[in-house]
Amino acid sequence: MERDDIIEYSLDVHHSEEEGVKMRKSIWRVTGLLTIITIVEVAVGSLIKQSSSIWPVVKWGFIALTLVKAAYIVLNFMHLGHEKKSLKYVILIPYIIFILYLIFIALTESIAVGAAWEKYGV
Amino acid sequence: MAEHAAKQIDTKTIWGGKISPFSTSYGKLMMWFFLVSDALTFGGLLVSYGFTRFNAQDAWPIGEETFNSLPFLGHGYPLIYVALMTFILIVSSVTMVLAVEAGHRMDRNGVTKWLIATIIGGFFFVGSQAWEWSHFIHGSDFGKVELADGSQAIVKGHFGKLQNFTVIEAGKHHKKGEVIKDKFEGDLMHQFQHAVEKGHIENGVIRLHDGSLAKVNKAADEHMFLVIKKNGKTHKIGQKIEGAKASEMYYESINSGEPHKVIYGANLKQNEYGPQQYGHFFFFITGFHGFHVFSGVVFNIIILLGVLKGTYHKRGHYEMVEKTGLYWHFVDLVWVFVFTFFYLV
């Protein structure tokens, strides 16, 4: 049902059988990648203890892998990578700012505040 | 997308607000705006969690210690269950994107097939979360113990099976010399833990509900050790106590005859894993996410009914599947962050 008074953007996303084959291929590739990342995370998480000396590196590694996973989900599964540039950044910039804020609070601010409590006490 | 740039658009359409600067339909754009705002909600929760968690440092429970059980297999499998849940959610996200892709080719059977697969995946995830909550609330066999010096420790290892209670002083129901066995699986354990919480155990003798006193016969614990999670007079956070000393200290508290020496499982006031806030965050963050998954499953079912009825096929496009798809992927996206910040680091 195409209305002539508005533009039906929904019809633009249609694609052919051949394009579909290509897209499914890329979907399965991303699936494999996400699975491998999760397996690596769990393996590292159960092998390396938090008391270990390389834990800080592992912690940053986990965060990096999480961001890779998140990027693949947003850009590939949610098709944001294929949307118009303006839309892409309207969505991505708030996400990125908030993720940076989360990392800063969790790994810098909280530890500093914790240390201050310990030093000066209540 | 690009096609519209080439299309001739008359001034009436442009000035009438009929054109989207993002080249996206109204519905999809609104879904994206909702997802941004929802991400801020989850972001707020995770930021407050991250602040509290790293503020507490070693007093906070470690994911691989707390979540190390599998259904039917017991414990000793760090993080495997959560990894499985993550995998289930990723797979259901994949089936969803396949449904969307089928919709773009107007392949109604394909959409139906993949949407049903997604709904099944969603139910599996919600079910897994129910099991995890139940496990978290019931807790371990040992619980968290307050030691003689006022410190608190979590206890790891295999709890020796309770064999029976031998009555040494008769009460209302039980006679002297009677041997009380499990009436059903976990019955003795339930009575034992209840008595520990109330402080009804002294020197290996348990006071039962009816007032009778009985000797507790129990197999030895294996590989038991304590990890201090709250400072006391002599023990400090992070200290590990192993071997006979651990067992001695644990049973000293059990047999003290004082209430509240041991905490089993979790509720909103206290939990055996760590600080009180840990339980709050666990229930709120995983609960809020689980509620999102549940709503997602409901949306998917509603859309599936539309697909089966042929509503979208008649409309000429499957954008409704795409919109719920966006929501579904978002739920997966949030879980990726919850997984990292709650379970891994």
Poorly predicted runs of chain A: none
- Gap between N and C termini of chain B: 41 Å
- Give the largest chain-chain interface (CB within 8 Å): A-B, 66 and 74 residues
Helix % of chain B is: 40-55%
- Would you list the SSEs of chain B in sequence order as H and E? HHHHEEHHEEEEHEEEEEHEHHH
Q: What structural class is derived from the secondary structure elements of chain A?
A: mainly alpha
Instruction: Please tell me the CATH architecture of the largest domain in chain B by its name.
Output: Up-down Bundle
Short descriptors:
heterodimer, A: 122 residues, mainly alpha, B: 345 residues, alpha+beta, Four Helix Bundle (Hemerythrin (Met), subunit A), 11 helices, elongated
Structure description:
The complex is a heterodimer of chains A (122) and B (345). Chain A has 122 residues and is mainly alpha-helical. Chain A has two domains: 18-82; 84-122. Chain A is built from three helices and no strands. Chain A has helices at residues 17-47, 55-77, 85-120. In chain A, helix 1 packs antiparallel against helix 2. Chain A is elongated and about 65 Å long. The mean pLDDT of chain A is 87. Chain B is an alpha+beta fold. Chain B has three domains: 3-139 and 278-344, Up-down Bundle (Four Helix Bundle (Hemerythrin (Met), subunit A)), CATH 1.20.120.80; 140-158 and 223-264, no CATH class; 161-219, no CATH class. Chain B is 55% helix and 14% strand. Chain B has eleven helices and twelve strands. In chain B, the strands form three sheets. In chain B, strands 11-10-4-3-12 form a five-stranded antiparallel β-sheet, covered by helices on one side. In chain B, strand 7 and strand 8 form a beta hairpin. In chain B, helix 3 packs antiparallel against helix 9 (276-309) and helix 6 (108-138) runs antiparallel to helix 9 (276-309). Chain B is elongated. The model of chain B has no long low-confidence stretch (mean pLDDT 88). Chains A and B meet through helix 1, helix 2 and helix 3 of A and helix 3, helix 5 and helix 11 of B.
